[in-house]
Amino acid sequence: MKVPRFLNTLTGRFLMLTVIFVMLAEIMIFVPSIARFREDFLLSRLERAQIASLALLANDTIDMGLEDELLANAGVYNVVLRRDELRQLVLSSPIPAQIYETYDLRNASALELIQDAMTVLIDPEDKVIRVIGDPVKEAGLLIEVTVSTAPLRAAMLDYGVRILALSAAISLFTATLLFFVVRSFMVKPIKHVVSAMTSYTQAPEDARRIFVPTARIQELREAETALFEMQTELTGALRQKERLAQLGGAVAKVSHDLRNILTTAQLFSDRLEASEDPAVMRSAPKLVNSIHRAVNLCESTLAFGKAEEPAPKLTGVRIAELVAEVIESERLAIGDFDLSFAEDVPATMVLRADDEQLHRVISNLVRNARQAIMATGQAGEIAVTTFEEPAEWVIQIVDTGPGLPKKAREHLFQPFQGGARKGGFGLGLAIASELVRGHGGRLALENSDETGTRFAIHLPKGFDLEQNSSVASEVT
């Protein structure tokens, strides 16, 4: 069965539910009301019967015609009065059937009255019942009459129909008022929000389309505020993404040209290796290696601009030689500054990793530590320690610097957000973390406070290159 379109709307369902709930409330009122109507109906018969009996008590001699007229006006078959412990049949006429039930209204409870009223409504058969009550103005101990249920049931049905018709009118009127109120205070603001969301999706980078909260209702105001904050953050993220895309294109162009320049420098540096000058012979290999790494970095930057980091080429890496090379390069950068380096690396330890990528990770961490300590102007120390666990190799870089800033700790490893020093862009740690993940490992900040910082590189021993090749191509 197809549901009407109107009932699928918020206002339509609200209107329907309002009618249903009002009708249910009216039905709950109807049951005791119909019971009270039955009681009043029978009490009125008792009162009219008592008035009719007064005529006979005033005049002992009354003809049969007048007696029948009194009983007909009272709507009863006979009247019994009990006065001074004497039960007296005052008025009487032939009873068409045997008395079906006796009802005493003097001490009847509300539940009994409701049950008796429902019994009369359900049973359509005309029956004779006896009704007992207290006389009006205490004119005796009790009054008792016999009546037919047909007039009582007809009067109750007529009353019930009028009550239900009135209930339906009230429910429709109430629902209509609520319909317009809900439409004004709830549906229109919701449609306004939906319209604003639709407009925003057409051009999310346009800040003019960001929805401004205007609702006064608390719940709607909260929803509008949440939408405003979400759109503001999304627009900012889209703008940043656009700037990063532009920056990536610029970096790719610079890296391309810089790679060509470094390639030329590499050709000249190769000739220096043939020099017989002792100083040149000592410096030439380091110069060649540095230029070679710079060329590889440019090529990697171009690959990063294409949203892909080359998969690591796993080989056996003597970690002691790699760490020594990194530290020797950093010693040249400190000059006369009071900064010491410490190494605790087993000479025979061989890791399974990509030599170039691991060098970039360790060099980045050591360089960051060196720059942080030199920025304080105080003496410090940087220590590199490696050890072996059953399932992984661990490389720790510990410094005695001032610790990472709060912002850097909150956005660690996020490019352009986790800068550890003033003027930094946070790219170094982001790239280092990505390179370590490419090895199937993880780069973790284990401690950072005013006493120093400790990073740890965890490289798994059971690295599956095919299984983790997709990790190597992800971009932070």
Outline the structure in words.
By secondary structure, this protein is an alpha+beta fold. The chain has two domains: 5-177, no CATH class; 309-472, Heat Shock Protein 90, CATH 3.30.565.10. Helices cover 57% and strands 17% of the residues. It has a five-stranded mixed sheet with strand order 2-1-5-4-3. Strands 7-9-10-12-11 form a five-stranded mixed sheet. A two-stranded antiparallel ribbon has the order 6-8. Strand 11 (442-449) and strand 12 form a beta hairpin. Helix 1 runs antiparallel to helix 2 and helix 1 runs antiparallel to helix 4 (149-202). The longest helix is centred in the middle third of the chain and has 55 residues, at 218-272. The protein is rod-shaped. The model is unreliable at 463-476 (pLDDT under 50).
Beta content: 15-25%
Query: Which of globular, elongated, flat, extended, rod-shaped describes the shape?
Result: rod-shaped
For this structure, the quaternary state is single chain
Our measurement of the CA-to-CA distance between the termini, rounded to an integer number of angstroms, reads 52 Å
Number of strands: 12
What is the H/E order? HHEEEHEEHHHEHEEHEEHHEEH
Sketch the major β-sheet.
5 strands, mixed
Q: Helical amount among residues, as a percent range?
A: 55-70%
Alpha-carbon Rg, integer? 49 Å
The strand line-up of the biggest sheet is: 2-1-5-4-3
Q: Into how many domains do the coordinates divide?
A: 2
Helix count? 11
Kindly name the structural category.
alpha+beta
Q: Show unreliable segments.
A: 463-476
The mean pLDDT is 78
Organism: Pacificibacter maritimus
Catalytic activity: ATP + protein L-histidine = ADP + protein N-phospho-L-histidine
GO molecular function: phosphorelay sensor kinase activity
Transmembrane segments: 14-35, 163-182
